[in-house]
Request: fold
Amino acid sequence: MLEFSYKASSSSGEVSSGRLTARDERQAVAQLQRQGLIPLQIATLTGGAGENSFSVTNATPVRAQSKLVTTSKRSMPNLSDWFDKMPWRRPGVKELASFAEDLGLLLKAGVPLNRALVILVELVEKPLFSQVMENLREQVKEGSTFWGALHSHPEIFPPVFVGMVRAGESGGMLDAALGRLALYLNGIRELKEFLFGAMIYPLVLSLTTGASIILLLAFVLPKFAAIFSDMGVALPVATQVMLGCGNFMQSWWWALGGGGAAVVWGYRQFYRSPSGRLIIDRLSLRLPLFGGIFIKMDLARFFRTLGAMLASGVPILESLQVVSGVISNKILEQKVAHLQEELRQGAVISQVLAADPIFPSMAVHMVGVGEETGHLDEMLEKLAEMYDRELKVTIKALTSLFEPLVILFMGLVIGAIVVSMLMAIFSVNELGG
Reply:
């Protein structure tokens, strides 16, 4: 048996804390539920290394397999307001998903919205998000709609968040809308975490390779150059080339660094211009291998967002307006705008997608089936899951191919440097003989 500390809320919104004994965390959650309490935070006191907090699963009997991600309350740090408003201080997808899921669970259990926001303020880590939730509570207390309060913080809550909450609040199903919103955000978070994890090793390997080559050319080779210069030996061409590269990097490092910074700045300025972004986005879709990845990423984002908003009761034209804002590629964004215009004129979404070669035939057929059966939102979510799987398989294959290529490139470059130095050493030995 393990001992747990807990923090839970009653149906009236009052928060209590204490300790209990159970075999595992699921039994601890069940004990709290039998007492009519809503688990908010549970931590292991015995049976483990230190005190470990974990997520509460199946927190309410009305929503199976739900998850309430717990956080620990922190005291307000003594930081300036401008620091709290920095981008890294804002809540990310994980915090927004936890907020939507926690709030949906509390509302499902019968806790009033105003009281639920008070409870969640105590569980937020980031001070800026805590201040935002305090403001949300004040606006709701003064009679504002919840979606209207969210809309007043566009830097925190994206349009898809506000749109789904608005539809759920208008239909009297705010708790269900928040649950779907949490699933939507968690899907996006899982994909981002997979992409980030898949790119860590290739990125570290590339940086290590570049640093090793720069170290050899800029610092190691010049030491040998001074020795060969004192000997007055005629060096092989390969050695002269390597030494020239090393001397150039050592003498003109500031020009190389400034040139690299200028290229990055110029690219960003060009990409920020409307015409420049169109050119870059069009070229990115035509890149070998990577073009397919970019298309799948945006298609998965398009289908997932549209499906989630339709499932929440948002009209399709309003949903497409929001979807166009979450697509990163300008070419695809224009295609969504064209789709929206065609639907205004009475067209069918599957027919419009079929006329555009960028949408695969499988996706067009599934959308058509969803329209015929009246389950378009479910079909769109299945399409998003399908493209997520294909994207993960493609990225995994590319990273598996990229790693040996980088190692091979590093071996060839370092091998060429070593061979050039050995040739110089052999020429000195021959001269001495």
